Amino acid sequence: MPDYFTLEDYNLILLITGIIAMLAAIVPVIMSRSYISAPIVYLIIGIASYFIFLHYFFEPLRHLDIIKRISEFVVIVALTNAGLKIKEPFKWETWKYSFRLLAIAMPITIVAAAFLGWKIAGLAPATALLFGALIAPTDPVLAGELQTSEPSKADTSKIRLGLTSEAGANDGLAFPFTYAAILYAVAGGDYTEWIGYWFLHDFLIKITLGVIIGLITGWGLYKLVFSISSTAILNKISRGILSLSLTLLPYALTEIIGGYGFIAVFVAACMFSRYEIFDSHMDSLHDFNEELESIVVAIIFIATGIFISSQYYILLNPEIVAVALIMILVVRPLAGYLSLVKTNLNHFQKFVLSFYGIRGIGSVFYLTYALTYTKFVDTDKLFDITIATIFFSVLIHGLTAELVQNRIDKYDSI
Fold first, then answer.
1. Distances (CA, A) of 135 to 53, 206, 378
2. Is the pLDDT of residue 203 over 80?
3. What's the pTM?
4. Three-state helix/strand/coil letters over 234-261
């Protein structure tokens, strides 16, 4: 007898993937003129999916390596997108505000987050330092709604340019502080035993390697592709495959050599995009990356909604909620605003650059990276605080982004 309605795991995975791909194609378009962002919709879908279909205990700590790889991939795709958007990456005008956010706001955020994690949530010192490192970077994925224009359009907004350049750079710069937390967890509280090694290797050398390899690969790919003299042949080159090359080559080469691949990917994309004569090709690369990114964003935030539903007690824990909300509503806005004092920005521009330090997929990657690298104390609580912070960030920033976008377009220009 023929078998009907047989359920195999492989076919179920294909079905779920197809549904998510459909949502990734439709939801951003439908919500583009709404005050609700696409990640919020995905969270709601995840929550509904849990209560309707999946009512079981979801344990992400058992799947750390899978989560790490998925979040790693979506971050490097987003970093390529951010780099392609920046028209003049080697001019001080592009960096003069984001540099302050990176040099002042980011260290303040790391210290404040570590203190809150230790003092309020009761995390062990090394775990608290890890929380500070992973929650500090502005997410290049979720910040996309407030980032600067596509490659063929001029940068006309100080806010959008500042958020784009900050989000592109600080995901890589969070790595040294993540390694500091790892060394603290491994070697103990006597920092004199590892601080010199950390500063030389994990801070100076690995950052330098990321920048150098990013510059070389970005320049090399540009020369290789656009040295083709025939426009007809050039137009036949697959934008999708080229985009993947621009994302994967600098990342893989840098990681193999031992540098920070996140930095290399962003720098390579900046180097690749600086030649205005091929703007239409840059737009195609950017569009492909956004489509690829949207699928993985849908997967991650549907999974986050399922996780929040399965462990809703996280949102009932006053310590966890307090740390998350203080980070989003107090620490980042205050640190950002202080870093922009004595600039020529008006109060609205300072507020937006300070407040929209969105937390998201980059934090998930650093969390899973550290937990798969070595053992930390209080990992369950650290995971809960991180997910709660991302959850509230998606809600608060996602619900207000549309209002801010309208004011940016009206009041902010370079």
1. 32, 21, 16
2. yes
3. 0.85
4. HHHCCHHHHHHHHHHHHHHHHHHHCCCH
